[in-house]
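Researcher: Structure prediction, please.
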Amino acid sequence: NPVAALDLWEAYSLPSEETGLTNAAGKTAAEFINLYPPGIPMLVPGEIVDDGMIKLIEGYIINGYTVQGVCDNKIKVVKTT
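Model: Predicted structure follows.
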């Protein structure tokens, strides 16, 4: 289960940046990452991306599933200073 670092509304409203999925470990998700269908959220804004979640997302992509919120193997994370 992902750990929340920020409230959803706070993370969703903060500036974000794209990062490679493999470089996202330890960063805070800025957008929803959903397994579709059926549209199950895997990460919500404010949750910390960890290595286990990265492997899970990569596994779904490799097996041909649609993972919304991942584009060209990149996701949006909360921008750090």
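Model: The first strand starts at residue 16 and ends at 20.
Researcher: Thanks, that helps.
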